[in-house]
Amino acid sequence: MYFISSVKEIQDLNPFIVIGGGGGGEKFSNFEGIETLGFVDDDESKHGKKFGKYTISKSLLDLIENTDAKSVAIMLPIGAEGAALKYAVQAIDNNKNVVCSFRSLSIEENSALLNFAKEKNVVIKEISPRVDVIDKLFGISHDKCCEILPKISYKPKATVVFIGGTSQECGKRTTTRLLGEEAIKRGLKVGTISTDEMGLEWPVDFNFRAGSLSAMDVPSAILQSFKVIEEEKNPDIIFIEGQSSLTEIGNPHPRGLSASILIGANPDFTIVCHRPNHPFREPRGINDEIKAIEAIEPTEVIGLSINLRNETDLSPEDFEKEYNLPAVDMKNGGASKLLDAILEKIDN
């Protein structure tokens, strides 16, 4: 088996040259009992700079020639598959053992490397996502790691408005859609993103089920959506639908998803949706959700969308008075008032 299950297996391959002068390389070199003789990175801006007690090199072959390393650890991120494969071939060709990360070089998907290592009589091992452990716990798991998207950074030029909520099924999708419609009626250029497979209605530009992605991939998917929308439409404002809630009681599973979407969106402003007397969810409430949202991201909650489907005695005005925020019923013409509140904040 080429999966590593303990640090002892790595220690037996000491000492190492580490490929990757970043977080992955640092984590690997910090394993107990690991001897590191140098670092290599393709990023020219890192060449010649100190990384721990070593200077980052641009050439693996130079370090192989000038050190007594027995092994090469390839700790590159997702998206660096080509570089990882290059370094693995160089290492094996020079009779060095290889330890790689599943993030950039899956041995399962590069079986030719196993044959090459066998031919050269060297060891090749992978630090895997250990989905086999999940299979042992549940009797079912993904066949392989589902984290596949590259990590990107992007700051949209448009104002971003996040539509969050106190629970599932509280009106986030409807609020997002109707705000988009209202903004278009007023002549604004609008981007609208749904993070749910049910977000099929106009004016949604992109819809995808964020819950089907790794939590690590959700921010990348959102940032790439922003980037493509801005390239195609140059919008004045982007509305993005959240999922579930950060604070809902009784169902913790989607709450991490909610945080991932919020973090990826990094919104300028936020609208919170709430459904009083929800028949099958247990929201903690508006105050708790506002505190949680504003604690995670430097955004401002500027309005409330109240779903009155299960409430006959209260009105949006009651919530407005209690929370000192504009509050509307989107199914009864509330989009205009809520958009006014958003545009007023943008203008200020």
Automatic annotation (TrEMBL):
Where in this chain does the entry annotate a coiled-coil region?
Answer: none
Q: Where is the D-glutamate N-acetyltransferase-like N-terminal domain?
A: 46-129
What lineage, starting at the top, does this entry show? Archaea, Methanobacteriati, Methanobacteriota, Methanomada group, Methanobacteria
Question: Which species does the entry assign this protein to?
Answer: Methanobrevibacter curvatus
Which superkingdom does the taxonomy of this entry point to? Archaea
Entries under PANTHER family matching the protein: DUF1611 DOMAIN-CONTAINING PROTEIN, GLL3100 PROTEIN
Instruction: Name the chain's protein.
Output: DUF1611 domain-containing protein
Xref: InterPro entries: DgcN-like, DgcN-like_C, DgcN-like_N, P-loop_NTPase
Start and end residues of each D-glutamate N-acetyltransferase-like C-terminal domain: 156-339
